[in-house]
C-alpha cells in the first residue's frame, strides 16, 4: 500500500466516520486484487476550501453497468456474507458531511474512488451525530426494528447522519419492551421477523404511544391495500431494497401528515 498524505490537511468530518469510509474502500480494493495482487494507493490533495482523497487500486475494475449500481444499498457482486452495504453507508456518511463520493473504474485495469470533503477550519460547522439538525425537518426519535443486524446498522447510520435520534434493535421482543417504556415519533419495522411480526409491533406501538407513526419495511409492499394498512395502524410501506432518498421522502411525508 502506498500513501501520499499531507498531514496539514484537515477535513470537516468526524474521525470515526472517515475511518469507516476508508476501511470500506480499502477492503473493497483488497477484494478487487484478491486473485492477481496489485497496489493500493491513497492520496490526498488540497482543493483550497475542500480536501480531496483518492483510494486507487489496480484490481479487477468494473464495467459501466456495475459502476452505476455500486452505491445502491444491498448491491453486491460478491458471495453471501457480503451485505452490499459498504459503499451505500460510505456514500451517506460523506454526503452527510457535505462532501462527494464518486468512482472512476476501468474493467481489468483498476478503480479510483474520489472523496471530497469541506476543509476544516476553526469556525467550520462540524456536522455531528448529536448536534446536526435535519435540514428541513425536526429531529425525530425513531425506533428501528429488523431481525437483520446489518439492516439495523445501515438504517441507524443513515438516520443518525440525517440528525435523528435512533434506537436500533434486532430482536422484536426487546422492541415490545421499549415501546411500553419510551416515547418515539416513528417506528420503522420489518414485516417478517421470527417471533413477533411487524404488524403486531405496529398495533402495539399505536396502542402504547399516542401519535406515533409506523413505516413497514417489506419485500411485498404491493400486496397491501392502503385502507387495509391504515386499519392495521401502518402509515406507509417501503419495499426493500430501497434508496435512502426514497425512505427519507416517505418519513417526511408520514411525519408531515400530523396525527
Ligand atoms: N475497488 C473496487 N473494485 C472493483 N469493484 C468494486 C470495488 N469497490 C466496490 N466494487 C463493487 O461494488 C460492489 C458494492 O460494494 P460494497 O462495498 O457496497 O459491497 P460489498 O463489498 O459487495 O459488500 P460489503 O462491503 O457490505 O461487505 C461490490 O460487490 C463490487 O462489485
Ligand atoms: Mg465492501
Structural commentary:
The protein is an alpha/beta fold and 259 residues long. The protein folds into 2 domains: 2-118, 2-Layer Sandwich (Heat Shock Protein 90), CATH 3.30.565.10; 141-256, Rossmann fold (3-Layer(aba) Sandwich), CATH 3.40.50.2300. Helix content is 34%, strand content 23%. The protein contains 8 helices and 10 strands. The protein has helices at residues 15-32, 64-69, 86-96, 149-161, 172-181, 198-208, 226-231, 244-256, and strands spanning 2-4, 40-46, 50-57, 100-106, 110-118, 141-145, 165-169, 186-190, 213-218, 236-239. The strands form 2 sheets. It has a 5-stranded mixed beta sheet with strand order 1-2-3-5-4. It has a 5-stranded parallel beta sheet with strand order 7-6-8-9-10, with helices on both faces. Strand 1, helix 1 and strand 2 (40-46) form a beta-alpha-beta unit. Helix 1 packs antiparallel against helix 3, helix 3 (86-96) runs parallel beside helix 4 and helix 5 (172-181) packs parallel to helix 6 (198-208). The radius of gyration is 20 Å and the shape is globular. The structure holds adenosine-5'-triphosphate and magnesium ion. Magnesium ion is lined by residues 24, 27-28, 86. The site of magnesium ion (MG) has 4 residues, from helix 1.
Please provide a brief summary of the model.
With 259 residues, the chain is an alpha/beta fold.
Provide keyphrases for this structure:
259 residues; binds adenosine-5'-triphosphate; 34% helix; 5-stranded parallel beta sheet; 2 domains; Rossmann fold; alpha/beta; single chain; binds magnesium ion
Amino acid at each position: 500500500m502506498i500513501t501520499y498524505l499531507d498531514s496539514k490537511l484537515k477535513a470537516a468530518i468526524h474521525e470515526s466516520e472517515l475511518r469507516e469510509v476508508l476501511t470500506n474502500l480499502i477492503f473493497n480494493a483488497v477484494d478487487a486484487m484478491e486473485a492477481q495482487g496489485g497496489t493500493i494507493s491513497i492520496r490526498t490533495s488540497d482543493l483550497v476550501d475542500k480536501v480531496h482523497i483518492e483510494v486507487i487500486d489496480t484490481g479487477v475494475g468494473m464495467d459501466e453497468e456495475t459502476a452505476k449500481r455500486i452505491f445502491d444499498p444491498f448491491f453486491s457482486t460478491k458471495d453471501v456474507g457480503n451485505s452490499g452495504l459498504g459503499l451505500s453507508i460510505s456514500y451517506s456518511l460523506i454526503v452527510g458531511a457535505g462532501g462527494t463520493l464518486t468512482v472512476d473504474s476501468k474493467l481489468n485495469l483498476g478503480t479510483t474512488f474520489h472523496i471530497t470533503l469541506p476543509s476544516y477550519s476553526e469556525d467550520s460547522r462540524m456536522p455531528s451525530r448529536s448536534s446536526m439538525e435535519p435540514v428541513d425537518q425536526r429531529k425525530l426519535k425513531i425506533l428501528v426494528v429488523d431481525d437483520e443486524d446489518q439492516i439495523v446498522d445501515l438504517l441507524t447510520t443513515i438516520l443518525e447522519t440525517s440528525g435523528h435520534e435512533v434506537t436500533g434493535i434486532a430482536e422484536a421482543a426487546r422492541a415490545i419492551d421499549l415501546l411500553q417504556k419510551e416515547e418515539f415519533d416513528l417506528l420503522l419495522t420489518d414485516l417478517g421477523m421470527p417471533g413477533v411480526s411487524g404488524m403486531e409491533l405496529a398495533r402495539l406501538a399505536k396502542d402504547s404511544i399516542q401519535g406515533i407513526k409506523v413505516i413497514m419495511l417489506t419485500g411485498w409492499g404491493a400486496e397491501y391495500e392502503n385502507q387495509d394498512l391504515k386499519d392495521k395502524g401502518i402509515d406507509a410501506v417501503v419495499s426493500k431494497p430501497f434508496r435512502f432518498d426514497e425512505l427519507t421522502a416517505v418519513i417526511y411525508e408520514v411525519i408531515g401528515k400530523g396525527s
